[in-house]
Write a structure and sequence with these properties.
58% helix, 4-stranded mixed β-sheet, 547 residues, single chain, mainly alpha
C-alpha cells in the first residue's frame, strides 16, 4: 500500500512539469507560427532599426519616447541576423526602419523573425511566473496549471508576444515585480531588491509602467510590515526601508539600461524633442515635474515626447463610431471585446474571491492593485489604439482565476475546468489570426473590424498574406490599394495604385483597403467603398472589393 502511494506521488511529481511544458509548447508553436507568417507591424521597423543602431553605433538617437531595455532585448535577435546597416541614412525613425528592412539588401522576413524571437522567449518565461505566482496564491498545483492555461491560450498575449514590440515585456515585468514583492513577505532581503529590479525593467521598457512604481513600493512596505518576526516598533522603519530599496533598485536598472547602450550617455535625437516650456496645460506641469526625477536626461526627454504625443488630436473607433479625442471607457470596452469569455469570468470571479475569502485576502492587493492602477492611468491617455496598452490585465486575470478553486463549492472545480476549456477552444479557433481576435460574444475575429480598429485588428501585419492572395486568385487584375502599415507593398510583389489620387470613376478592378482605413473612411474613399462589392478578406484585417 505504501509503495503504491509512493508511486502515485512520483507520477504526480512528473505530471505537473509535463503539463507545464505542453502548455508552453503550444503557446510557443502559436507565437512562432504567427511570427513567421506576419509581415512587420507599424511599430516594429522603428524598434528593429533602433536596436540595430544600438548594436552598431552605441548611441541614443532614435525612439527616445521608449526607454532602451526592450529594444536591447530585440537587439539580441538582430545581432544573430546581422543586417546591413547605414548609420548615416537621414530621416525620421520610421524612414530609417523602412530603409533597413526594404532598401539595404536585407531579408525583412528573416530580420524581423530574429527580432521577434527574444520577445517570444521572454513571453514564455513570463508564463512560468504566472504558474508559480498562481500556485503560491491558490496553494495547489491545480491552481498554477489553471493560471498557466489561461495565460498560454490568451489571444492578446500570443498576438503581441509574437511581435518585436514592447507591450508584453513591460506588462510581464510588472507582473514579475508583483510576484517577487509577494514572495518578499517571507524572505524580504532576497525578494525586495529583486522586485525592484523587475519593476525597473518594466520602467526601462515603457514609460507607461511608471504608475506601478508607487504601487510596488507600497506592496513592499506591506510585505515587510506583515512579517511576524519583526517587532512592532521596527515594522514602520523596515517597511519604509523596503519601499526605498525597491525605488533605488528600479532607478538603478533604468540607468543601467541607458549605460548599456552608451556608457557616455550621449543623447543626439534624430528628431526634435519638445522643450518643457513648449508643453501646454497639464502636460506642461508634468514636463516640469519630470525634470526632478533622478533618471537619465534621455529618459526625461522621452517623457516630453510622450506628453507632446498626448496633446495630438488622435482619432478613435469604438463599436462602429469614429471620433476625435479619447473616451475614458475605451480600454475597458476594448478589453471586454478582446478577452476570452472564460478568462474574463474566471479572472473577475477570482479577484472577488481574493478579497472575500479570508485565506486569500493577504494576496488581494498584489493581484488587484497593480493592474487597477495601471488601467486607471492608461484610461486617461489620448490614444485609443488598442488593448496592447493594457496587456497586464489578461496576465493578472490569469493569476487571479484559480482563486475560484478555493471556494468550497462542488461546482468550483468542474466550472473552472469548463471555462479553461472554453478559453482554449476560443483561442485555437482564432489560430493564426490572434491580433484581430474578439470573443464569440462579439462575433469572433471576422467581426472585430466592425467594433475596433488599429492594433486591435489591423496593424499592417497581413501585407504578405495579401500578396499571396492576389497571386493565387487575382493574378493580372488591376489593383487599387489603401494600406495602413509600415510595409512596402512593392517588395512583396503588390503593384497597386492609390484610388484617392484619381477621380472615383477611374477606379475599376480590385479595391483593397485595410480595415482600419475602412473604419476611418470619409469623403471619396467612403464613397468608393459604398459603391463597391466586398468579395474577399485577408487575415480579418484587409478587405477586397470588386468595382
Amino acid at each position: 500500500m505504501h509503495a503504491a502511494y509512493a508511486g502515485l506521488r512520483r507520477r504526480r511529481r512528473w505530471l505537473v512539469p509535463v503539463l507545464v511544458g505542453l502548455l508552453l509548447a503550444q503557446m510557443a508553436a502559436a507565437m512562432i507560427t504567427t511570427a513567421v507568417e506576419q509581415t512587420p507591424t507599424i511599430d516594429e521597423p522603428v524598434y528593429v532599426a533602433t536596436a540595430t543602431d544600438y548594436l552598431h553605433e552605441h548611441r541614443l538617437r532614435y525612439n527616445p519616447e521608449h526607454p532602451p531595455l526592450g529594444k536591447l532585448l530585440i537587439a539580441a535577435g538582430v545581432a544573430v541576423a546581422d543586417p546591413h546597416y547605414d548609420p548615416s541614412y537621414p530621416g525620421t525613425q520610421g524612414d530609417v526602419g523602412r530603409h533597413l528592412l526594404y532598401e539595404s539588401g536585407n531579408d525583412p522576413w528573416r530580420l524581423v523573425l530574429w527580432a521577434r524571437l527574444p520577445v517570444i522567449t521572454l513571453t514564455l518565461l513570463f508564463g512560468l511566473v504566472v504558474w508559480r505566482f498562481a500556485r503560491e496564491v491558490a496553494g495547489t498545483e491545480a491552481g498554477g496549471l489553471v493560471a498557466l492555461a489561461l495565460y498560454a491560450f490568451s489571444p492578446d498575449v500570443i498576438a503581441h508576444g509574437s511581435l518585436a514590440t514592447l507591450d508584453v515585456p513591460a506588462a510581464g515585468f510588472v507582473l514579475t515585480s508583483a510576484w517577487l514583492v509577494w514572495r518578499a513577505r517571507r524572505r524580504p532581503v532576497l525578494y525586495v531588491p529583486l522586485a525592484g529590479a523587475a519593476l525597473g525593467a518594466a520602467v526601462a521598457t515603457k514609460m507607461s509602467a511608471l504608475p506601478a512604481v508607487p504601487v510596488v513600493m507600497g506592496l513592499a512596505l506591506v510585505s515587510v510590515w506583515a512579517r511576524p518576526d519583526v517587532r512592532r516598533r521596527r515594522r514602520v522603519l523596515t517597511g519604509l526601508a523596503g519601499a526605498v530599496v525597491v525605488a533605488l533598485v528600479a532607478v538603478a536598472v533604468v540607468w543601467a539600461a541607458y549605460l548599456a547602450v552608451d556608457p557616455r550617455l550621449r543623447f543626439t535625437p534624430a528628431e526634435p524633442v519638445p522643450a518643457v516650456h513648449a508643453l501646454r496645460g497639464l502636460h506642461g506641469l508634468r514636463g516640469r515635474l519630470t525634470e526632478l526625477l533622478p533618471l537619465p536626461p534621455a529618459y526625461r526627454a522621452g517623457m516630453r515626447v510622450q506628453f507632446a504625443l498626448e496633446d495630438q488630436p488622435w482619432q478613435g473607433f469604438l463599436f462602429g463610431r469614429l471620433y476625435t479625442g479619447s473616451l475614458w471607457y475605451y480600454l475597458p470596452a476594448a478589453l471586454l471585446v478582446k478577452t476570452p469569455l472564460g478568462l474574463l469570468a474566471l479572472g473577475v470571479t477570482g479577484c472577488v474571491a481574493a478579497v472575500a475569502v479570508r485565506r486569500l485576502r493577504p494576496a488581494a492587493p498584489y493581484l488587484v492593485l497593480p493592474p487597477a492602477v495601471l488601467l486607471a492611468a492608461a484610461m486617461t491617455g489620448s490614444r485609443d489604439f488598442g488593448t496592447r496598452y493594457a496587456l497586464f490585465v489578461p496576465m493578472f486575470l490569469a493569476v487571479a482565476g484559480p482563486c475560484v478553486l478555493t471556494l468550497r463549492r462542488r461546482w468550483a472545480g468542474p466550472l473552472t475546468g469548463a471555462l479553461v476549456l472554453l478559453v482554449a477552444v476560443s483561442s485555437l479557433r482564432a489560430f493564426p489570426y490572434y491580433l484581430p481576435y474578439s470573443s464569440e460574444a462579439f462575433g469572433g475575429p471576422a467581426h472585430t473590424h466592425r467594433l475596433l480598429h488599429d492594433a486591435n485588428v489591423d496593424w499592417g501585419q497581413d501585407l504578405g498574406r495579401l500578396a499571396d492572395r492576389l497571386r493565387e486568385r487575382y493574378r493580372g487584375e488591376r489593383v487599387w490599394l489603401v494600406y495602413k502599415g509600415s510595409g512596402v507593398p512593392s517588395y512583396y510583389g503588390i503593384h497597386a495604385s492609390d484610388p484617392r489620387a484619381v477621380p472615383p470613376d477611374r477606379v475599376h478592378g480590385l479595391l483593397v483597403v485595410s480595415d482600419s482605413a475602412v473604419a476611418k473612411a470619409r469623403g471619396e474613399l467612403a464613397e468608393l467603398i459604398e459603391t463597391s462589392r466586398p468579395v474577399d478578406q485577408v487575415g480579418h484585417s484587409i478587405t477586397l472589393y470588386r468595382r
